[in-house]
Each structure stands twice: as structure tokens, then as C-alpha cells.
């Protein structure tokens, strides 16, 4: 590691002065780019705990401040920041379980804190950078996408007990999550699906947050939560199967959390008189005021399963049961609308298939109940597709039920 140590020492001296005009900026940038790329290659190759710890003990805490300072200096230059961000994204990646630290080791927490510093430092600065629309991805969104990937890897690496941060008043986790929210709101929603790499990193991170940090999502401001739900709704119909599947999993986590909260607090899902207690989570209040949000989700999922080439039927089935239980009256309206759209001689058959769909299904989201619903849905889709392909059948009665725009 002597050549790399020498390179870091030289870089530290180059960017040491507080005023960038006092040092050779171009020389420092070239040194930083080469060093970050070399280290990323090493980090990628070190797949064992022993080799990774050699690298980690060498780079932290001696040289990570230099990398952080470089991000602060040149946050507006992606050719400089991208290699550094990718290096940190690799360092937090628990590839081959290489980040299984000892029980008495604080290294997992220390590593996350460094990643949080980089995300917050870059994120808060890039928000203020104005770029041309035709250059928004290479100059801005690419770096944000890498930050999303870094945060996802750190959150899902299973080497940090995140309860420790709030227990001891450490703001590293909250800062990283709040920076994610600010970065997300800075992205036009159309761009989330227009740029494949950005959409992949965003939806994968969102699934991780919904799975393990639903409490954080439930306390977001209404406009943020509406933005997230709207993006999920768009992702459900995305051409990319991975994006669609991730949105289904995320929606399932959200619906399951909502279902549990309503039952624990005395509300009864699916009824007009459902009451969300005044002290409930913000997002419970939002969904009470805007029931059409989940209703459109239900309409979208059912529409994809019934009328489109659904390549991930199992994934679609998981949130569908929760959506039905939370919106029983609306589901009944959808069902009646579909039945009435059929030729008179087929309406009884269609009604029977809907009855079969809910046969044996209880009002809970236990695994056994979910699996039974998934089996029923497979038979439902098989039978109903044959009928819907008939010449006298209305193509898409669900699409007329609701048109919703999130504000």
C-alpha cells in the first residue's frame, strides 16, 4: 500500500489550503480521480473479511477526510466526484459477507457515518447547482443515483444496528435519510423513469426503506409521501420488470404497515366510517383525507393482472390482497363495473370467478392467507383472460373507474 499511501499524502498536501486558488487544482483533480479508481478496484477485489479489513483500517480514519474534502471542493464537477462516490458505494457494499464485524467492533457504525457524511456533503451542495436540462443526467442525476445506491447498500448490508443512532443521539442516519428526501424532491418525477439507472437505484432504495424503515416513511410530510406514492404508481406500469417488481414489494410493505396500524388503533379498513385516531402517523392522516390514492393503486394492479401481459403475477398478487382489504367498498364497485361490462350471458360466470377469487380469504395478511389468495388469483387470471379475449368483451372497464393526478 506504500504507493497509495504516498499518493494520498501528496493529495492531502495539494488540497490542504482553504483557498482553492492557492493549489494546483488540475494536478490535484487528476491525482484524486486516479487514486479513487484504483482504490475502488481494490475494494471490489477484496471479497474476504481479512482483506477488506486491511483496506478499511488503512483508509479510515487517516484518508477518508481527504476524500470528503475533495467532494466538498469539486461537487459541481462530476468527472471528479463520480469516482469518489463510486469508491464509497463500493466500500459500503457487503459483498460475500465481508463486512461481518466482530461483536465488540464499532466499524460498521463508523463506516456508515462516513458514508452519511459523503451523501450529505455532496447531496446538500449539488441541490444548489443549476444545470442545463439536456445535461441534467451527467452533471447532476448520475451523482444522485450513486448516492441512492450507496445509501441502499449501507442500509441493507446487515452490519449496522440503526437503533443505536437514535438511542445515543447520533444524527448520521437521520441526516442521510433527510438528504435522500431533499434529493428526491429535486428530481422531476418524469426523470425517475426516463433514466434507467436512476430509476433502478431509486426503487431499490425505496423498497429497502419500506421494508426496514417504514417508521421514517410514515412521518414524512404529506407532499413527500404523495410524491413517493405517485412514483410507485408510475412504476407499477413500467416496462422494466425489475422496477415493476420492486414497486410491488414496496407497495406491499406500505399496505401491510397501514393495515396493521389501522387495526391496532381501532380503525376498520375498507369502510367509509374508518376513523384514524388524531395521534396517528402523518401518513395515516394523509390516506384518510385522500382515500383515492390507494384506490387508484388497487385499480392499477388489478388492471395489469387482468388486461395486460403480467410477467410478475406473484409480485403483483402480494400488495393486491392488502389493497382489497383496505378498500372493500371500492373493490366491490370495480367488480360490479367489470361484471356489467360483460355480455349478459357471461355476467354470471364473471361474478362467479370474482367469488372464487375471494373464496376462503380472511381479513388478515398472514402468510397462509396471502398464499391462498395468490393461488386463487392464478386461477382467476387464467379463467378471466380467456373470456376477456372474446370479441364481445369490453377491453378495459377498470380504466374508466378513476383518473387520479397527484398534486
Automatic annotation (TrEMBL):
Cell cycle is among the record's keywords: no
Keywords: Cytoplasm, Nucleus, Protein transport, Transport
Keyword Nucleus included in the entry's annotation: yes
Listed SUPFAM superfamilies: ARM repeat (SSF48371)
Compartment list: Cytoplasm; Nucleus
Biological process annotations from GO: protein export from nucleus
InterPro entries: ARM-like, ARM-type_fold, XPO4/7-like
Molecular function terms, GO-annotated: nuclear export signal receptor activity
GO cellular component terms given for this protein: cytoplasm; nuclear pore
Main location class: cytoplasm
PANTHER family (UniProt xref): EXPORTIN 4,7-RELATED, EXPORTIN-7 ISOFORM X1
Family statement: Belongs to the exportin family.
Protein name (database record): Exportin-7
Native source species: Apis cerana
Lineage summary: Eukaryota, Metazoa, Ecdysozoa, Arthropoda, Hexapoda
